[in-house]
Specification:
By secondary structure, the chain is of the alpha/beta class. About 35% of the residues lie in helices and about 20% in strands. The protein has helices at about 20-30, 45-55, 85-95, 135-145, 180-185, 200-225, and strands spanning about 1-10, 35, 60, 65-70, 70-75, 100-105, 125-130, 150-155, 170, 190-195. The strands form three sheets. Strands 3-2-1-9-10 form a five-stranded mixed beta sheet, with helices on both faces. A three-stranded antiparallel beta sheet has the order 4-5-6. Strand 4 and strand 5 form a beta hairpin. Helix 1 (about 20-30) crosses helix 2. The protein starts with a strand and ends with a helix.
Length: about 230
């Protein structure tokens, strides 16, 4: 069977807007059968989401987006592992625990992609389309990695629920179980990236980002003002 997956989503456990519960609800409404909440340097978002998806769909793959010295890496695992921001240590820990390592938005250097280091055979694949990256970067990434030997994923990188599923990956599996999905994510022939953008989601993310910036500015100003008294 073929299932739609979005394996790069953020929640309020890091820098996303929404609670993991609402991420699960939005994914289900959009017909996604597999998701991973990959909050920055933590598995917390995906583990909270498991409580709301248990016994139904979408299947939640424990995941995190780890910021290392070489760039951002999606880590998808059977269960959470210890986070280390050293790429060498992360590779060892991930492989010891049957995890999958996918460089995120590799050519989006503004967002800490690792560039052409993503071609190295130590990774299980590459994110060839990221709906939060600009179109030019995505086109260049699709071209640069079209003959890549590993799996090729398209993800939303959603920070607001309206963006979830805007880009996704169709995975061929015999059943929707965690081990089956992780095995498919090691097989290039079993994964098919589906690029796409969601205009409403992009607008909502932009508005939310501005509100966050203004809120931080206001909090900083209040702190400075308090410090003068």
């Amino acid at each position: 069977m073929f299932v739609k997956a979005d394996l790069h989503i953020h929640s309020m456990a890091s820098d996303g807007r929404d609670h993991p519960k609402y991420v699960v609800k939005a994914a289900k409404k959009k017909g996604l059968l597999v998701i991973s909440i990959t909050d920055h340097n933590t598995f917390l978002g995906s583990m909270i989401a498991l409580n709301y998806a248990r016994g139904s769909y979408p299947l939640v793959v424990p995941g995190s987006e780890v910021r290392t010295e070489v760039g951002d890496i999606l880590v998808l695992c059977p269960e959470p592992i210890e986070i280390t921001r050293s790429s060498h240590e992360l590779i060892d820990v991930a492989h010891d625990n049957n995890c999958i390592l996918i460089p995120a938005h590799p050519l989006d250097l503004v967002r800490l992609g690792m560039g052409f280091l993503a071609r190295a055979p130590i990774w299980d694949g590459v994110e060839v389309f990221n709906a939060s990256s600009d179109p030019i970067t995505n086109v260049l990434t699709l071209i640069a990695f079209r003959n890549h030997r590993g799996v090729k994923l398209a993800n939303s990188d959603a920070h607001v629920i309206e963006m979830i599923g805007s880009a996704c990956t169709v995975i061929e599996v015999s059943s929707i179980e965690l081990d089956e999905v992780l095995n498919a994510l090691r097989n290039d022939e079993a994964t098919h990236p589906v690029p796409g953008y969601e205009v409403i989601g992009i607008v909502n993310r932009g508005a939310w980002a501005i509100r966050r910036m203004l809120s931080r500015g206001a909090n900083t100003a209040m702190g400075l003002q308090a410090a003068t008294y």
